[in-house]
Amino acid sequence: MTSIFRTAMGADFDRLHPQLRRRFSVGLTNGQACTGRGVMHRIWHGGAFVKPFLALGATRNILVPRVGRNVPFTIENVPYLDTFGRETVTFVRTFDLPGRARRFDAQMVLGPRGDRVLDYLGTHQHLASDLHFHAEPDGSLLIRSGEHRFREGPVDLRVPELIGATAEVRESYDDTCARFRVRVRVVNKYFGPLFGYEGSFSATYTDISNRTVRPGLRPVREESRA
Asked: CB within 10 Å: which end of the chain, N or C, has fewer?
């Protein structure tokens, strides 16, 4: 067995920078978690019309409703088995904004065909998105979102393009300063850029073989539909 990210990327995984390969090898097989600590040099969002949607999403730890510069942040990538027996890796980002820290939560599992990663967003996993991982020629990682779905009880709806968005994540490793660099953009097809951030961080790895996931890191509700 390998990490869910190596499985989804196949041979393309080996084209990543060695530090990215290590970071995205976290999982139950190697028994490691990764914690990144650094600075978001910029957190931004689009026009005023975006604010109500960001504020609503923030109630479930989806996106960040405030802007800022040079904001300390932490990202926690911890593998565990969810209640449905699927290997899951947390992508919990905490932004230490003035006055109040904000979180952007996601939990990732391997898609049923093994060729994509499924990204459950927020504390209750009401939103799910397909993620496609690609190695760039320079060894960096490009992640693009695909279809988005909203799920609650019997409801299972595809989010229409008018109110949906496409996320693009670029992550690389800077050998000169021994830090990871990340840039995220969320764009709506009709209204343009909605939200994003860019920053850098260093990573540490811990053995999780005999540990449980710390309280508050797992979602309140888990969704079984892929």
From this structure: N
Let me know if 3 is exposed, middle or buried by CB neighbors in 10 A (0-12, 13-18, 19+).
buried
CA distances from 72 to 76, 87, 142, 213 (A): 14, 29, 23, 23
Q: In a 3-state reduction of DSSP, which class is residue 140?
A: coil
Task: Report which of 179, 185, 182, 186 is spatially closest to residue 199, judged by C-alpha positions.
Answer: 182
The amino acid sitting at 187 is V
Q: What does the pLDDT look like over 8-58, one tens digit per residue?
A: 999 999 999 999 999 999 999 999 999 999 999 999 998 877 888 888 888
Q: How many CB atoms lie within 10 A of CB 152?
A: 13
Q: Give the model confidence (pLDDT) of 172-200 as tens digits.
A: 999 999 999 999 999 988 888 999 999 99
* Cα(100)–Cα(95) distance, integer angstroms: 9
Q: Dihedral through CA 59, CA 62, CA 65, CA 69, nearest 10?
A: 140
